């Protein structure tokens, strides 16, 4: 059901099941790929219920099928929440929410209001509240702060709303906006450093994030945008909201609870190669898959297949742990540094993913091989290697894009970090703290982070 709906929506280029090296980015027309956001990616890997009514898909806009009892709330531009938050634009959408830019009329700041689906499990909020409690840990600054929280009632139910600071774009948005899908080296290093610091902080608080992909890494906007920019200036600079009519495929009237118009999200971002070091401050968002292993066992991973740790498949009776985050963290750091993802494919499956992992990383542990037979070893990926993939998707890609490539010492340090993080058995992977202490982090990534840590705007977040 899920797949067949997607094949209806997907243009021919993307419906291919062949493993083209970079299915989404540089070769699609400008901005087209934003319609296939991280959340779309995720939808394919999460269980979901579908409304029986189908709607004409609208580019860049959430699927109208989710406006149903228990689903999204039909937010309109101009809505006031709590007589305080005036909705001025749309920021984005995910599987569980729509996210809106609002003017906080009490503080006169621009904020993000995440309006969750009515069936949303509020556990995420509790976790985020704990992680965003004041702390002197440098990782705390990379976790979004909950500025306010309230509920609204609507035709589709009762919706939790979270107010946080607005972000500019995600790492995946910045790469999709670019023809070369690469960040400047110092920017990639700074993002990777912050991500590891954030994960180390989350693990130190005894949580596992569970969904560490590029779509959940958000760039902070300028201080000017958050603190001062009035709505008229935002519209002048970034454009007024664009509305697209919502139509059912069967031509019938829209049911209650479905908006008459979809709102195209504002684009505050820029192409990856144009992001400067000072603009590379990030927040790690989306704690919808997070859990506390001390209190809860979690056997199934809903992370996108491309970053999903192999133990979710091969050790289904063991609970996921912080080591599962380390695997996904390695895949995501790769994606930040390279032009193409570590593992590839849009409509891929677990067998293919295992074949790709063996191709890049070598044979599976013996007990996993025995469990799953030999068939997965007979694959087209066998002549690959991590080093070869690195040469192609990082070094040569950077040279082609006329960007500096990595020196051999840095390359060796980085590959050695990847190798340890991508150990098949979770118990063989380093902890986030050990990753922070790795040669690449200490000598290349953390020094770039230190440069932005002391920037004026960064300090502003603490005032
Ligand atoms: N504070 C924010 N500022 C700007 N954009 C945001 C913000 N929060 C989220 N977004 C945008 O909305 C998208 C979805 O957000 P988020 O991941 O929090 O949603 P979700 O409903 O939990 O979905 P999913 O788990 O499918 O990603 C993000 O990828 C980003 O593009």
From TrEMBL:
GO terms for biological process: regulation of RNA splicing. One of its GO terms (molecular function) is ATP binding. ATP binds at residue 114. Residues 85-441 form the Protein kinase domain. It holds the Pfam family Pkinase. InterPro entries: CLK_kinases, Kinase-like_dom_sf, Prot_kinase_dom, Protein_kinase_ATP_BS. It comes from the Eukaryota. Keywords: ATP-binding, Kinase, Nucleotide-binding, Serine/threonine-protein kinase, Transferase. One of its GO terms (cellular component) is nucleus. PANTHER family: SERINE/THREONINE-PROTEIN KINASE DOA-RELATED, SERINE_THREONINE-PROTEIN KINASE DOA. This is Protein kinase domain-containing protein. It comes from Aspergillus wentii DTO 134E9.
């Amino acid at each position: 059901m899920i797949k067949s709906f997607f094949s209806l929506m997907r243009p021919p280029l993307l419906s291919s099941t062949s493993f083209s090296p970079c299915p989404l980015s540089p070769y699609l027309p400008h901005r087209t790929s934003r319609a296939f956001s991280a959340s779309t990616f995720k939808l394919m890997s999460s269980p979901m219920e579908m409304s029986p009514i189908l709607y004409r898909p609208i580019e860049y806009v959430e699927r109208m099928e989710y406006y149903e009892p228990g689903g999204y709330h039909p937010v309109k531009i101009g809505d006031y929440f709590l007589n305080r938050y005036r909705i001025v634009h749309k920021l984005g959408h995910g599987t569980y929410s729509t996210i809106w830019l609002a003017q906080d009329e009490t503080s006169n700041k621009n904020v993000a209001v995440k309006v969750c689906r009515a069936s949303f499990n509020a556990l995420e909020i509790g976790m985020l509240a704990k992680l965003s409690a004041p702390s002197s840990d440098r990782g705390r600054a990379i976790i979004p702060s909950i500025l306010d929280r309230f509920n609204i009632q609507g035709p589709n139910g009762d919706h939790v709303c979270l107010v946080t600071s607005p972000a500019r774009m995600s790492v995946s948005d910045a790469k999709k906006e670019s023809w070369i899908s690469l960040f400047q080296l110092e920017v990639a290093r700074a993002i990777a450093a912050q991500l590891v610091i954030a994960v180390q902080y989350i693990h130190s608080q005894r949580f596992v994030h569970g969904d560490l992909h590029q779509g959940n890494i958000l760039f902070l906007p300028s201080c000017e945008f958050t603190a001062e920019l009035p709505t008229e200036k935002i519209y002048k600079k970034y454009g007024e909201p664009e509305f697209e009519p919502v139509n059912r495929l069967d031509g019938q009237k829209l049911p209650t609870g479905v908006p008459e118009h979809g709102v195209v999200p504002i684009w505050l971002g820029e192409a990856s190669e144009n992001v400067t070091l000072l603009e590379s401050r990030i927040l790690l968002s989306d704690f919808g898959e997070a859990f506390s292993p001390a209190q809860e066992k979690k056997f199934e991973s809903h992370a996108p297949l491309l970053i999903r740790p192999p133990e979710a498949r091969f050790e289904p009776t063991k609970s996921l742990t912080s080591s599962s985050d380390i695997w996904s963290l390695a895949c995501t750091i790769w994606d930040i540094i390279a032009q193409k993802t570590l593992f590839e494919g849009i409509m891929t499956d677990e067998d293919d993913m295992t074949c790709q992992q063996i191709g890049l990383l070598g044979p599976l542990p013996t007990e996993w091989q025995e469990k799953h037979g030999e068939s997965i070893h007979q694959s087209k990926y066998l002549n690959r290697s991590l080093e070869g993939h690195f040469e192609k998707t990082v070094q040569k890609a950077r040279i082609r894009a006329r960007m500096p490539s990595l020196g051999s010492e840095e390359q060796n340090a980085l590959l050695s970090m990847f190798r340890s993080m991508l150990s098949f058995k979770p118990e063989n992977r380093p902890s986030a703290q050990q990753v922070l202490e790795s040669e690449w982090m200490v000598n290349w990534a953390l020094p770039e982070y230190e440069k932005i840590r002391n920037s004026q705007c960064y300090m502003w977040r603490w005032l």
